[in-house]
């Protein structure tokens, strides 16, 4: 028996030794300079069409939100194609399912870039999906357009962030609360990176602005038990609640909140993850009169938005709504088009070179790309949910706010970006 | 007796292992593009976990629904080392980037040992094995088995995920650990190094299969199958079934740990989503589809299911999950012994058509053999689901 075992193990051991010997061929870390990536771009722009990639979760827990983004991306591409394409080339979409899993996002992003050789990729929603894809785009020196508001503290030369960073959503919401005379804030959030970072910023803001955070509670993503937390909120004496809960948890939270007799008049809730799309899911009756912080609402009265909403309803149904991430996704395709046309090239370095100052008359108003951090200017708006489930602007920043992902222009935020 | 337990002959085992090595180490690198080869590397990681599940579940009867924990420990141990090593590159501060953003900018004490490559490599194998040993002794000595063991291991995964998510500043929370630049000093963006990683994973898989084959033919392997089929009888014969099961469980855990450690540099990320309840079940699904008791069933099942999932989701991004579900139902309903049992079935039908037709239906893939049924099986006849 010993003899048999030895023979069975000897072969693979030899294989292992052989493969280890091979390892001497590769480059040592630190020897290669940044950007000297092994993979050469394989984007083919010689034909009369060029490929672009979509990566959204079409299955899994995030599918409900991300499908809407995929639809508005598709609408933008169809419009662009109908108008003659980008630099005369039609866009060919390769769509992939990120399946709500970071590792799948990384896998599919790599497939889009290396196998399909797309000129740019649009999509991603959760921070974890973006963080997972970032190395793929940096290693292959390719481009990702990320359309969702996020926690900031990031800027990559290979990612364009067309959603709000914290100083275009969280901080304006705090300014507004302060303006309303609210000084005692209760923080409720799902336990992941966005709420934790947002609340870190809120705590620093409160300290510098004479506000007090009277409570800070987290629940696991998907949790629906809010009995204890709602009671804590009710007895905390808070003036307002800052809500960074995600998904289903909102239903349970707002139900519990209402059952304790709380209302927008006595203790308003400002939510940063509830847009038009989510209102019907949470239940209009639970949200009427509550506040949200975004940069776009379906009800905005701009010519670009009137067209955007009408076209979307025509394409996907009259009962459908449009939301901030959908608008940011739609905008991202047009911004990429403008960058490419300004650069006169689909090549990443040329596009990056051209990006600064590129603008687009988006449904939310004119947005401008900041080439230093690859974010865009956006106009923060506080909205209030009405009885039809739409959100109306009750406060708006006087002018678009420059993106500041690392909060460098806010002295009180000095400790946050490390 | 060995022949009757679904154990391939020595020649078949060697030939099969050789064929696997040939396909993974020679054919695949020649045929596949860089991207596809890296994908296969990822599937190989799952296959290494599957080899362990084949031992613990297929032959030991322990439905290990918690392999994500061991996969995660191996993965996070490796990821922590890579993050620390990256932070020291080019005269860095030695503090991983995400800790600067979300933590207080200092490296916690329990991270420090992972600066050492040697400690990390040991930890990848030893931590999962030790945890499994401790758990195994605690559980099996109390004669907890069947569904209770499965529920317990599943609960352990759920708890582990909550723990990781809550520790944003030290574990990266839901983001997990990612953005690795080097692997033991070698740049991860160099295709030559990525190829080496693939060979390393493939080599380890072949070695794991060889180990599993050796184990299957050993006295311990026979004892393990005996414990699965008639635990009380094994006890009456003077052996301690708890020890036998613990060893198999620890071995499966160590293999999962190694797989997790390989997954990290190959895929470039480890996050709670990769090791949670769902991935833990998917590990089992692959093994069930391939055939859990055989030598190659778990490997082929794991790679096959992962490959099918990727191809289907590429071809039908919006409704691939239905196909995947249908595939699973079809295999479990029509081939309860897994795809690998198809070969045995055909062979059996060819040699003795009557027996093949009258063979009783095998237990469902999610069930462990009921002690009463197993005890009633004569010792010289294989339990039905080993060899339907």
From TrEMBL, chain A:
<dbReference type="InterPro" id="IPR017777">
    <property type="entry name" value="ABC_urea-bd_UrtA"/>
</dbReference>
<protein>
    <submittedName>
        <fullName>Urea-binding protein</fullName>
    </submittedName>
</protein>
<dbReference type="InterPro" id="IPR000709">
    <property type="entry name" value="Leu_Ile_Val-bd"/>
</dbReference>
<dbReference type="Pfam" id="PF13433">
    <property type="entry name" value="Peripla_BP_5"/>
</dbReference>
<dbReference type="GO" id="GO:0006865">
    <property type="term" value="P:amino acid transport"/>
</dbReference>
<feature type="signal peptide">
    <location>
        <begin position="1"/>
        <end position="29"/>
    </location>
</feature>
<keyword id="KW-0732">Signal</keyword>
<dbReference type="InterPro" id="IPR028082">
    <property type="entry name" value="Peripla_BP_I"/>
</dbReference>
Automatic annotation (TrEMBL), chain B:
<dbReference type="Pfam" id="PF02653">
    <property type="entry name" value="BPD_transp_2"/>
</dbReference>
<keyword id="KW-1133">Transmembrane helix</keyword>
<feature type="transmembrane region" description="Helical">
    <location>
        <begin position="38"/>
        <end position="57"/>
    </location>
</feature>
<feature type="transmembrane region" description="Helical">
    <location>
        <begin position="12"/>
        <end position="32"/>
    </location>
</feature>
<feature type="transmembrane region" description="Helical">
    <location>
        <begin position="281"/>
        <end position="307"/>
    </location>
</feature>
<feature type="transmembrane region" description="Helical">
    <location>
        <begin position="118"/>
        <end position="140"/>
    </location>
</feature>
<feature type="compositionally biased region" description="Low complexity">
    <location>
        <begin position="353"/>
        <end position="380"/>
    </location>
</feature>
<feature type="transmembrane region" description="Helical">
    <location>
        <begin position="64"/>
        <end position="82"/>
    </location>
</feature>
<feature type="transmembrane region" description="Helical">
    <location>
        <begin position="242"/>
        <end position="269"/>
    </location>
</feature>
<feature type="transmembrane region" description="Helical">
    <location>
        <begin position="147"/>
        <end position="166"/>
    </location>
</feature>
<protein>
    <submittedName>
        <fullName>Urea ABC transporter membrane protein</fullName>
    </submittedName>
</protein>
<feature type="transmembrane region" description="Helical">
    <location>
        <begin position="319"/>
        <end position="343"/>
    </location>
</feature>
<dbReference type="GO" id="GO:0015658">
    <property type="term" value="F:branched-chain amino acid transmembrane transporter activity"/>
</dbReference>
<dbReference type="InterPro" id="IPR043428">
    <property type="entry name" value="LivM-like"/>
</dbReference>
<feature type="region of interest" description="Disordered">
    <location>
        <begin position="350"/>
        <end position="388"/>
    </location>
</feature>
<dbReference type="GO" id="GO:0005886">
    <property type="term" value="C:plasma membrane"/>
</dbReference>
<dbReference type="InterPro" id="IPR001851">
    <property type="entry name" value="ABC_transp_permease"/>
</dbReference>
<feature type="transmembrane region" description="Helical">
    <location>
        <begin position="196"/>
        <end position="215"/>
    </location>
</feature>
<dbReference type="InterPro" id="IPR017778">
    <property type="entry name" value="ABC_transptr_urea_perm_UrtC"/>
</dbReference>
<keyword id="KW-0472">Membrane</keyword>
<keyword id="KW-1003">Cell membrane</keyword>
<keyword id="KW-0812">Transmembrane</keyword>
């Amino acid at each position: 028996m010993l003899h048999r075992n030895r023979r069975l193990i000897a072969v693979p051991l030899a294989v292992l030794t052989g493969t280890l010997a091979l390892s001497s061929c590769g480059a040592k870390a630190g020897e290669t300079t940044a950007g000297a990536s092994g993979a050469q771009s394989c984007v083919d722009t010689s034909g009369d069409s060029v490929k672009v990639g979509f990566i959204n979760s079409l299955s899994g827990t995030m599918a409900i939100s991300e499908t809407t983004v995929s639809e508005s991306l598709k609408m933008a591409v169809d419009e662009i194609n109908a108008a003659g394409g980008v630099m005369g080339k039609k866009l060919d979409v390769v769509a992939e399912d990120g399946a709500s899993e970071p590792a799948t996002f990384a896998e599919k992003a790599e497939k889009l870039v290396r196998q399909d050789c797309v000129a740019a990729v649009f999509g991603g929603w959760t921070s974890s999906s973006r963080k997972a894809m970032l190395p793929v785009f940096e290693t292959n020196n390719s481009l990702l357009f990320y359309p969702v508001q996020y926690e900031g503290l990031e800027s990559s030369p290979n990612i364009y962030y067309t959603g709000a960073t914290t100083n275009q959503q969280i901080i304006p919401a705090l300014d507004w609360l302060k303006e309303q005379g609210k000084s005692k804030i209760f923080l409720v959030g799902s336990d992941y990176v966005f709420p934790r970072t947002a609340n870190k910023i809120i705590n620093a803001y409160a300290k510098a602005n004479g506000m007090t955070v009277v409570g800070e509670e987290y629940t696991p993503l998907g949790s629906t038990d809010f009995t204890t937390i709602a009671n804590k909120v009710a007895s905390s004496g808070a003036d307002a609640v800052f809500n960074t809960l995600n998904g289903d948890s909102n239903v349970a939270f707002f139900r519990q909140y209402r059952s304790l007799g709380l209302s927008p008049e006595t203790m308003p809730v400002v939510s940063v993850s509830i847009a038009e799309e989510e209102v019907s899911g949470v239940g209009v009756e639970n949200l009427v009169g509550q506040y949200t912080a975004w940069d776009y609402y379906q009800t905005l009265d701009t010519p670009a938005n009137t067209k955007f909403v009408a076209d979307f309803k025509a394409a996907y149904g009259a009962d459908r709504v449009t939301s901030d991430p959908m608008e940011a996704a739609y905008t991202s395709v047009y911004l990429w088009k403008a960058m490419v046309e300004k650069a006169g090239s689909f090549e990443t370095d040329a596009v990056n070179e051209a990006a600064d100052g590129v603008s687009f008359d988006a449904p939310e108003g004119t947005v401008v790309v900041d080439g230093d951090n690859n974010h865009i200017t956006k106009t923060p708006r506080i909205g209030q949910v009405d009885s039809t489930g739409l959100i109306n602007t009750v406060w708006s920043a006087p002018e678009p706010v420059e993106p500041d992902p690392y909060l460098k222009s806010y002295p009180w935020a000095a400790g946050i970006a490390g | 007796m060995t022949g009757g337990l679904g154990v391939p002959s020595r020649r078949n085992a060697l030939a099969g292992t050789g064929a696997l090595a040939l396909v993974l180490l020679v054919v695949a690198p020649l045929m596949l593009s860089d991207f596809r080869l890296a994908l296969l590397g990822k599937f190989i990681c799952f296959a290494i976990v599957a080899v362990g599940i084949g031992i613990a579940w297929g032959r030991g009867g322990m439905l290990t629904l918690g392999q994500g924990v061991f996969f995660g420990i191996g993965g996070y141990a490796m990821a922590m080392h890579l993050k620390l090593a990256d932070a020291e590159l080019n005269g860095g501060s030695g503090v991983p980037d995400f800790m600067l953003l979300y933590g207080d900018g200092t490296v916690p004490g329990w991270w420090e040992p992972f600066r050492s490559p040697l400690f990390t490599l040991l930890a990848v194998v030893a931590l999962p094995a030790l945890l499994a040993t401790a758990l195994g002794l605690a559980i099996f000595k109390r004669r907890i088995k069947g569904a209770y063991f499965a529920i317990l291991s599943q609960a352990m995964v759920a708890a582990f995920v909550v723990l990781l998510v809550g520790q944003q500043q030290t574990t990266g929370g839901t983001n997990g650990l990612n953005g690795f630049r080097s692997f033991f000093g070698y740049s991860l963006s160099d295709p030559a190094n990525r190829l080496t990683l693939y060979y390393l994973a493939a080599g380890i898989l072949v070695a794991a299969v060889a180990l599993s084959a050796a184990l299957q033919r050993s006295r311990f392997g026979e004892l393990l199958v005996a414990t699965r089929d008639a635990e009380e009888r094994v006890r009456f014969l003077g052996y301690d079934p708890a020890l036998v099961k613990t060893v198999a469980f620890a071995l499966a855990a160590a293999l999962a740990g190694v797989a997790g450690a390989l997954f990290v540099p190959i895929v470039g990320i480890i996050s709670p989503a990769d090791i949670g309840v769902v991935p833990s079940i998917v590990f089992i699904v692959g093994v069930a589809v391939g055939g859990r008791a055989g030598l190659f069933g778990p490997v082929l099942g794991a790679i096959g299911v992962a490959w099918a999932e990727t191809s289907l989701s590429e071809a039908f991004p919006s409704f691939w999950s239905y196909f995947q579900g249908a595939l699973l139902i079809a295999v479990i309903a029509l081939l309860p012994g897994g795809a690998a049992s198809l070969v045995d079935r055909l062979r059996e039908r060819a040699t003795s058509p009557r027996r093949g037709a009258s063979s009783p239906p095998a237990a469902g893939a999610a069930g462990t053999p009921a002690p009463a049924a197993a005890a009633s099986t004569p010792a010289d006849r294989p339990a039905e689901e080993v060899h339907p």
